[in-house]
From TrEMBL:
GO terms for biological process: auxin metabolic process. This is IAA-amino acid hydrolase ILR1-like. Transmembrane segments: none annotated. Residues 219-313 form the Peptidase M20 dimerisation domain.
Length: 446
């Protein structure tokens, strides 16, 4: 059975209340909608709803799971959806879940949260610290899941407003595993018109959001190279071929790719972050392994970098009489395309977020060289990714994502939940307005 056919079947069984039409209950005006988005935020801030969102986040934080192992997280999500009476499909891409709220009919809009944690030890001492040694939610994905469940609660509460169907996409393995790609391969974007995603930000004030139209995050790839020479006594170098010196020259030469070959106005990064070789003070090792990441915004630049990285590693190793092999780890760490925000959805976001938070709290930001697998969705359908502020100066500075000291200011969670819900609800409203205008125009022309 096709993915959507199956979903329609579930929805038709589970939607007990007939859904009144939006036009019946609400006037199609932007003033009407700004009241709606304000009431979404108030609802998410209500003590019982806030406490529930925070509780969900803390439960996930205590039990962090790595990519494609988010079994308990997925179970918790499904239990909460069951509790709300929201139908869903599972499993998708091992642990993924897609919930459905609304009319059961087109248009379809998706909201996405990532579920995976990082392989690192939490250093924050608090009541809900990670109970799993060596694993931590240090990128805020626990908060992302809690906010999307919060949005589910809001959308379910206000379901009579939905002139379409919202897909709640809980995906596995954002941190390098390409979970988004596997969700797409499973067909979740079939008939979906737009997708929204957010990331919590430690250095943006609470109540503010930031994004931009066009490229916002870079495309990223990884490489690993083994440079082989001939080991021997460190005091008799003439009898060895030193791979440490060769690897050092390789690293210096790789830095020339960005500084000398790239257009200074086309942002690119190459970082060698891994260097393994040797173990004794007086032994030249047989080989050295280096590895790193490279970033660029366009596909052409990315392909050019990839080709030159390979040429430079092999060529420079040869200069030092070494052999080199280069692996771009396509299977384990698939290449992420650049995250490119749709222009039309940017306008929609500014309007919705501006209505809720005040337009001065909707910031335009510079692109970052970080990457996100949300970009896979944007390669298939129009998508929009934004950052949600959580900094509160009165509570001190927050550590950045991927730090063992990373903390979430939980006061930000209702904002994310309400924004998710408003972006979807507002999308249907705008579409309805456009269709109404268009049919009016056609009528006038007749
Ligand atoms: Zn991360
Ligand atoms: Zn993240």
């Amino acid at each position: 059975m096709g993915f959507f056919k199956c979903v329609f079947l579930i929805l038709s069984f589970l939607l007990v209340d007939p859904v009144p039409s939006f036009a019946d209950s609400y006037s199609v005006s932007s003033k009407g909608f700004s009241e709606v988005s304000a009431s979404f935020l108030n609802f998410a801030k209500k003590k019982e709803v806030f406490d529930w969102i925070v509780g969900v986040r803390r439960k996930i934080h205590e039990n962090p799971e790595l990519g494609y192992e988010e079994f308990e997280t997925s179970k918790l999500i499904r239990a909460e959806l069951d509790e709300m009476g929201i139908p869903y499909k599972h499993p998708i891409a091992v642990t993924g879940v897609v919930g459905f709220i609304g009319s059961g009919k087109a248009p379809f809009v998706a909201l996405r949260a990532d579920m995976d944690a990082l392989p690192m030890q939490e250093m924050v001492e608090w009541e809900h610290k990670s109970k799993v040694p060596g694993k931590m939610h240090a990128c805020g994905h626990d908060g992302h899941v809690a906010m999307l469940l919060g949005a589910a609660k809001i959308l379910h509460e206000y379901r009579e407003l939905l002139q379409g169907t919202v897909l709640l996409v809980f995906q596995p393995a954002e941190e390098g595993g390409g979970g988004a790609k596997k969700m797409i391969d499973a067909g979740i974007l079939e008939n979906v018109e737009a997708i929204f995603g957010l990331h919590i930000s430690h250095d943006l004030p609470i109540g503010e959001v930031a994004s931009r139209a066009g490229p916002i995050l870079a495309g990223s790839g990884f490489f690993e190279a083994v440079i082989s020479g001939k080991g021997g006594h460190a005091a008799i170098p003439q009898h060895s071929i030193d791979p440490i010196l060769a690897a050092s020259n390789v690293i210096v030469s790789l830095q020339h790719l960005v500084s000398r070959e790239a257009d200074p106005l086309d942002s690119q990064v190459i970082t060698v972050a891994k260097f393994q070789g040797g173990g004794a003070f007086n032994v030249i090792p047989d080989s050295v392994t280096i590895g790193g990441t490279f970033r660029a915004f366009s596909k052409e630049t990315f392909a050019q970098l990839r080709q030159r990285i390979e040429e430079v590693i092999i060529g420079q190793a040869t200069v030092q009489r070494c052999n080199a092999t280069v692996d771009f780890l396509d299977k384990e760490k698939p290449f992420f395309p650049a995250t490119i925000n749709d222009k039309g959805l940017h306008e929609h976001f500014r309007k919705v977020a501006g209505d809720m938070l005040g337009i001065r709290n909707v910031k335009e930001m510079q692109p970052l060289m970080g990457s996100e697998d949300f970009s896979f969705y944007q390669e298939v359908i129009p998508g929009y990714f934004f950052f949600l502020g959580m900094m509160d100066e009165t509570k001190g500075k927050l550590a950045s994502v991927h730090s063992p000291f990373f903390k979430i200011n939980e006061d930000a969670l209702p904002y994310g939940a309400a924004l998710h819900a408003s972006l979807a609800t507002g999308y249907f409203l705008e579409l309805l307005q456009k269709t109404t205008l268009l049919s009016g125009k056609q009528h006038d022309e007749m």
